[in-house]
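User: Is it possible to get a 3D structure for a protein together with its bound compound? The compound here is zinc ion. I've pasted both below.
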Amino acid sequence: MRGFFRSGLIYSLMSMGSLIASSPIVGAGQAEDLRLTVLTHSYVDLPAEALSEAQQRAEKVFALAGIETEWIYCSAVNTQTQDQPPCSQVQGGPTVFSLSIVPRQMAQQYPVHTDTLGFAPLQGDKGFALHAWVFFERVKELVNRHKATGEEEAPSLAVVLGHVIVHEIAHLLGVDHANGGLMKAGWAKNELKQMARTEVFFTPRQAEIVRQELLRRLRIPNVSVELSDGPR
Ligand SMILES: [Zn+2]
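Assistant: Yes, that's possible. Here is the predicted structure of the complex:
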């Protein structure tokens, strides 16, 4: 069980750490083969444009690691769901992830620090970690605190949300916390400034872990996984 911690102390004290951002790394012959699906359950009032922007950020980070992503909105306060097949028609599998964006009262159900931005249990159904949660108000508070410092390079809520989504899904695929960058346990000023400019990417090593775990899951024959409808 892992959480994505962001404490006010870390935020205020860490400012000059170098950011680890990798160049695009694509394994030979793997670019077309590696794909994951994200079923998004949104339980918050998040405009369609913001959700779409968050998805695009996340999509780009995965793409630069050589991984295609498919995004399906299962329940969301927007109109995009009308054009998409219901999640019940999606075949579950070890590379089909559920992502729940939840409000404060739902976040309080989980045994993580009150500053945690997201939650990604290590084991899911049939041994696969498949379900991650993002705690919406905590992400908003992080963005607002950064803006309140007067920092000119301030990422939007959607941009930070996109990176939180990638961070949590990467945990589900076996990537641990790092000292800096996308997989840092608590983002500080530098990470947020970098997000305002461009994507914060996986390091080459992190990208390789994600690719290898996806390959491993894709090679397991005839695996059927029952999908969850939301937070458990
Ligand atoms: Zn984390």
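Strands lie at 2-3, 35-42, 68-75, 96-102, 118-120, 131-135. The radius of gyration is 17 Å.
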